[in-house]
Amino acid sequence: MSDPAQRVQDVLARLPVATETVPCDPEKADTAVFCEHYGYALEDSANTILVAAKTGEKRIVACVLLADSRLDVNHVVRKRLQSRRVSFASAELTRELTGMEIGGVTPFALPEHMSVWVDARVMTRERIVLGAGSRAAKVIVPPAIFAHLENVEVIDGLATRAA
After folding, report:
1. CATH fold label, 4-156
2. Among candidates 92, 91, 106, which has minimal Cα distance to 137?
3. Per-residue confidence of the chain (163 residues) as pLDDT tens digits?
């Protein structure tokens, strides 16, 4: 598999949306640590989490949600996947499917067959910080970028604000 960070940059370069890539210390790539260290707000950062259906059709989707949120796995995600059981993809499965490490996973440059579900709250932000395909960088993009990607669906209530 080619370099995921380069694949992400290639995808971003083809989109008609202004983006910014910022380097980060790979040791500080986890969202909460990144935000605190580099001065970004959690509500302006988004995580990309892979979720797998364990029953029924074996599907894996990428879910994008604000960092101050929790994915509604037991209700919304499970029902949309039409599965009695779902689980977060392991770091190993995520790496196998995307080539990306946790802390660098992004909705850009995913396998063509993978759907991307974006929580509607993400779309309310002026800009969001996302993984860049590696733990050594993040990308800053307007949420409108999702209109230019294949297999993306914006979903109300995909995530709920964490208490």
Report:
1. YbaK protein (3.90.960)
2. 106
3. 589 999 999 999 999 999 999 999 999 999 999 999 999 999 999 999 999 998 777 899 999 999 999 999 989 999 999 988 999 999 999 999 999 999 999 999 999 999 999 999 999 999 999 999 999 999 999 999 999 999 999 999 999 988 6
DSSP string covering 62-123, please? Answer: EEEEETTEEE-IIIIIHHHHT-S-EEEPPHHHHHHHHS--TTT--STT--TT-EEEEEGGGG
Which backbone phi and psi does 125 adopt, to 5 degrees? -85, 155
Polymer length of the chain: 163
Q: In terms of pTM, does the model score above 0.90?
A: yes
Structure tokens given for 42 = 């959690």
Amino acid at 91: A
Which amino acid type is present at position 84?
Answer: R
Q: How far apart are CA 32 and CA 68, in angstroms?
A: 9
DSSP state letter for 44? G
